[in-house]
Amino acid sequence: MKVGLETDQQHRRLVLKALLWMTVAAGSLFASLNIGRELWLLAAGEAFFVLFALSILRIVDRTEHLKWVMIAYLVPFFSLMVLAMLLPGTSSTVFAWIQTIPIICYLLLGLRGGFWMSLVFISLGVSAFSYHFGAQESLLTMMMLANVAISSMAIMLFSHIYERSRIKNEARLIELASTDNLTGLANRMKLAEVLERERSHAMRDNKPLSLIMLDVDYFKRINDQFGHEAGDRALRHLASVLSSRLRETDLLCRLGGEEFAVLLPGAALEQAADLANDLRRHLSKRPLELGSGQQTMTFSAGVATLGEDGQSLDQLMQTADRRMYEAKAAGRDQVVAAGQQYPLKAPDPLLS
Ligand SMILES: Nc1nc2c(ncn2[C@@H]2O[C@H](COP(=O)(O)OP(=O)(O)OP(=O)(O)O)[C@@H](O)[C@H]2O)c(=O)[nH]1
């Protein structure tokens, strides 16, 4: 199952792959042209880069150190560009490549890395250009140099502004896509994403992880008696009451309608069932205020735990869901975990 939106890393991996294929194509072309022009050093550098790009293409999809791979590629890549400008026989048009530096840096390294690497290599590029072509002190050369420096800085500025607003918009988009807009809780997509992460932590550290699925009892009656708006308020009320009883590391989410889930990292089945039961009592002691009076809310819940009840989100949800329906069938306002019913036989003094 594909979880979540495409991340920054995936996006940068794609850009890097495009750059590597461009290097292979352009490097092969320029290497053969420069062999024809007998520029042996430059041709050798370009041929080396074709092989270097091909070797990075082999690892780019599986490396966990993408940022370092990018730096290891970009530093010699840009250095070769600068070197190309110093070689005798190089035409002034090679400077066009310097203007790609900020775009490549910001797309691959983000704001901070992009800024520093652009600054260093644009400065080196402009210096190399001025060293090579600025020997004749004509006004035309000065104008060329000024144009080259200013246009590169302008591209750097635009790339910076673009990357900053892209990062902001992406963060906002991810927040919207992972939030339930009625209650402000996490939604199913967020649950899937966090569960994947917590599942690997739990398996690595040999720690438990449990899931509660809960469904409000007789919710339709609230809608029918007090209207849809009151139903919406009831869902927000439940979200706020349950959130106030949970820890920051627990994840409460609304799956849809009047169905919710709580992911509990570090909790074994029994602890999760106790907590679900506690949430049930907590909610029943905080009735919803309606214009005409108060309405007590209850829910039925099923609990499942990683390992015993399955390894994937789907398996855990299916088991917890089945147990939740057992709780409904057994009379509602209760919790079921592995065939165990809560409240246990002794009556709950707080509810009587
Ligand atoms: N106000 C409001 N109602 C919703 C929303 N989503 C689903 N519902 C309503 O929730 C009700 C769910 O009804 P049922 O599935 O019969 O469940 P129930 O009445 O809680 O009964 P049990 O689950 O069997 O205890 C339906 O009337 C839906 O229209 C929502 O976002 N806002």
Description:
It contains 10 helices and 8 strands. By secondary structure, it is an alpha+beta fold. It has 2 domains: 8-177, no CATH class; 188-342, Alpha-Beta Plaits. The strands form 2 sheets. It has a 6-stranded mixed beta sheet, sandwiched between helices. It has a two-stranded antiparallel sheet with strand order 4-5. β6, α10 (313-329) and β7 form a beta-alpha-beta unit. Bound molecules: guanosine-5'-triphosphate. Keywords: Membrane, Transmembrane, Transmembrane helix. InterPro entries: Diguanylate_Cyclase, GGDEF_dom, MASE6, Nucleotide_cyclase, Rev_trsase/Diguanyl_cyclase. It catalyses: 2 GTP = 3',3'-c-di-GMP + 2 diphosphate. The chain crosses the membrane at residues 14-33, 39-57, 69-87, 93-109, 116-133, 139-162.
What's the arrangement of secondary structure elements?
Layout: H1 8-36, H2 40-59, H3 66-86, H4 100-133, H5 139-177, H6 188-205, E1 209-216, H7 219-226, H8 228-245, E2 251-256, E3 259-265, H9 269-284, E4 288-290, E5 293-295, E6 299-305, H10 313-329, E7 335-337, E8 340-342
Parallel strand pairs: 6-7
Antiparallel strand pairs: 1-3, 1-6, 2-3, 4-5, 7-8
The structure holds guanosine-5'-triphosphate.
